[in-house]
Write a structure and sequence with these properties.
about 190 residues, mainly beta, Lipocalin, 13 strands, about 10% helix
């Protein structure tokens, strides 16, 4: 694995929380945990992502796997995957044995939902690939996802919003701006 890719993944892997933001502004920001956990027995650069509300951290509302690849252009591409049976792996970020049961056959690639990450002086900036039409079904309707993130040191900010397919009206997502997370636990990957 290229050193620059490994540096990004080591900075990303860990547990993040927006507790302070949620305490400062509870009407607009729920307290959320995001866990980026390496899956070391799969392709190098494979990470399990678990997003959950702090009131029920063992029940994720989003469970995904990304596979990171450094492109010739220098951009890091994050291939986004969902689980065929997400409930089977809901506790995998807490349970190493359950994590070791994840296989390639458990995953389905999410077309049009891959990210591109660039490195700059102020950290890493990620967004959905240009021209993507990542469809998210939420509140009974399909929406197009617009998603960005910024990772700098132990700070992670994210902004996810869903827009109506017909009218382009915002249907869900942060009203008051980005979610701001701080890393509380770090995990170093040991990919061969």
């Amino acid at each position: 694995m290229q050193p620059s890719l490994k540096r990004f993944l080591n900075q990303l892997c860990g547990e993040f929380s927006n507790q302070q933001q949620a305490l400062d502004n509870p009407p607009f920001f729920a307290h959320i945990y995001i866990r980026y956990c390496p899956i070391e027995h799969l392709q190098p650069g494979t990470i399990l992502i678990n997003q959950s509300y702090a009131i029920d951290p063992t029940t994720p509302y989003r469970l995904r796997v990304i596979k990171a690849e450094k492109l010739e252009s220098g951009i890091i591409k994050l291939w986004n995957h969902k689980f065929r049976e997400p409930n089977r792996f809901a506790s995998a970020t807490f349970d190493r044995l359950q994590r070791q049961e994840i296989s390639e056959s458990d995953l389905t690639c999410l077309d049009q939902c891959h990210y591109q990450v660039t490195e700059s002086d102020d950290g890493y900036h990620g967004k959905l690939e240009e021209g993507s039409r990542c469809i998210v079904h939420r509140d009974g309707r399909d929406t197009i996802l617009v998603s960005t993130f910024h990772l700098q040191g132990d700070a992670l900010s994210t902004l996810d919003r869903g827009y109506d397919l017909e009218t382009s009206e915002r249907r869900w997502g942060a009203i008051a701006g980005e979610y701001c997370f701080k890393k509380s636990i770090s995990w170093i990957a040991d990919w061969n």
